[in-house]
Amino acid sequence: MENTLGHQAIVRRRVALVLKYLVLSVLALIIILPFILGLWTSFLPTTAIAKGSLSGVMSWQNYHEAFTQTPILRYLFNSLVISLIQMFAHLFFASIAAYAFVFLEFKYRDQLFYVVLATMMLPFEAEVIPNFHTVRAMHLLDHYAVMVIPFLTSAFGIFMLRQAFKQIPWDLKEAADVDGLSHWQFYRKVALPYSRISLLTLAAYSFLGSWNQYLWPMLTTFSNRLRPVQDGLRQLHSEETATNWGLVQASAAIVVIPTLIVLFWGQHYFKSGLNEGSVK
């Protein structure tokens, strides 16, 4: 009797496991199918895409045209420069602010931190108009600075690094004070290495957020010399390339490659860093 019950329990667990992985596989297929279709059509001729056909002579012609007939390389370079600057700025300013909220004692410290957190509830769209008027008054439109200055730091980054710094044992800070380490030395030699996973997570998060920006570049950049990739893809829908869907699909595939590299490289750090920042 006990053997029968045990066997039934094992069967039920196996059936539940199979169903779980079946559902996960279906959901994964639904998510990845648009990307597969986009990549597939990027190798097809425009005539086949226009007819809605998924068959045809596959070639690298669309990619060759994307590199030779469009400024896609300039768009990639602009996005890379902007994303790297924003990423390093986030790491520096967010870590400095987080360190101050954890290790420095000053009046209204916690209240100021709550004000910083409150800014996370404001959607970016609500900040677009005042930010645009500000950068226009500073004569920064159509310049690299207009893509960097409004995004030098983030409340999310400050919050995540503050949670990571709070996990540093206070005894370690007291020992550093006894040894005569300044705040800057403790920040550089102890706090940053101790929170390496959270820093890498924030770096990947900041890079992807900057790379995928669309609304702000569309409003503030007007020339191919400074236009990033997301706005550049929109620009490809011009009179010259509006009907060349093969070229557009190839350009979109090229643009998404850096995103996939960062995601595959940083997925472990995303999980570890967010878990590290969620506990104290």
Automatic annotation (TrEMBL):
The chain crosses the membrane at residues 21-43, 80-104, 111-132, 144-161, 245-265. It is a multi-pass membrane protein. It holds the Pfam family BPD_transp_1. It comes from the Bacteria. CDD domains: TM_PBP2. Its main location: membrane. GO terms for cellular component: plasma membrane. InterPro entries: MetI-like, MetI-like_sf. The keyword Chaperone does not apply. Keywords: Cell membrane, Membrane, Transmembrane, Transmembrane helix, Transport. It is found in: Cell membrane. Residues 76-266 form the ABC transmembrane type-1 domain. Belongs to the binding-protein-dependent transport system permease family. This is Carbohydrate ABC transporter permease.
